[in-house]
Design goal:
- The chain is α/β, with parallel strands linked by helices and 225 residues long.
- It has a single domain, classed as Phosphoglycerate mutase-like (Rossmann fold, 3-Layer(aba) Sandwich), CATH 3.40.50.
- It is built from nine helices and six strands; from the N terminus they run E-H-H-H-E-H-E-H-H-H-E-H-E-E-H.
- It has a six-stranded mixed β-sheet, sandwiched between helices.
- Strand 5 and strand 6 form a beta hairpin.
- The longest helix is centred in the middle third of the chain and has 17 residues.
């Protein structure tokens, strides 16, 4: 049995600017670096209560890797990376502010939003594509530990990946008016059962991560892509 605990990367410059990052990158802000270091300390303190992580699996994008390394400065465990855990490819919308896209191309945005799982930005990938490569990456990671009775892996990835996985586990349609069940800055967990070769959800919003004191309220209220 392999347990995966999902963590979203810390705040970046483009998050502050509300730009869509997709598979492009932007460095963590100083506040974001503080966030990641604080999360590492928090997880270290909770090892006796929640259990120790055996390794970290990160998206290969810089913002996720930087977050993972800062967290790991406290945990000191093996760190692996997988391209399959990248954020969704937003194609032509990458680097743009979503509100500006809606203003410039309202019909195109409306059409895509109503496609639900088939949502695909121009020149980008669909949520179905994102789901499949994410599951493939996690299944591949679990196979490396199939000999172990139980492994616990911290997965540092992106909002799109986490949201897609959770919607999959809850059999949700990705309709624009569905209530959001993900709370900001929480960890979420699920298992991969080696005998049944199936993923099973354990808990959404299992642990709310602390944020450093800061005057800027962006991170306290919003998620990041």
């Amino acid at each position: 049995m392999t347990e995966f605990v999902l963590m979203r990367h810390a705040e970046t410059i483009w998050n502050r600017q509300k730009k869509i990052q997709g598979t492009k990158d932007s460095p963590l802000t100083p506040f974001g670096e503080e966030m990641a270091i604080g999360w590492g300390k928090e997880l270290k303190k909770k090892e006796n209560q929640a259990g120790r992580f055996s390794s970290i699996l990160s998206s290969d994008l810089g913002r996720a890797v930087k977050t993972a390394r800062l967290v790991n400065s406290c945990l000191d465990i093996p760190l692996m990376m997988d391209i399959g855990l990248r954020e969704m490819d937003w194609g032509e919308w990458t680097g743009k502010v979503y509100k500006e896209i809606r203003k410039a191309s309202p019909e195109a945005v409306k059409k895509q939003v109503h496609l639900c799982w088939q949502f695909r930005p121009p020149g980008g990938e669909s949520r179905i594509d994102l789901l499949q490569r994410s599951l493939d990456a996690l299944e591949s990671a679990s196979e490396k530990f199939s000999f172990a009775e139980k492994e616990r892996i911290l997965v540092v990835t992106h909002e799109g990946v986490i949201r897609t996985l959770i919607n999959y586990f809850f059999n949700r349609s990705f309709m624009w008016n569905e209530p959001d069940i993900m709370e900001p800055w929480n960890l979420h967990s699920f298992f991969y059962d080696h005998e049944e070769t199936a993923f099973k959800l354990k808990q959404v919003n299992m642990l709310k991560l602390s944020l450093p004191p800061a005057g800027d309220q962006y991170c306290a209220k919003k998620g990041v892509k």
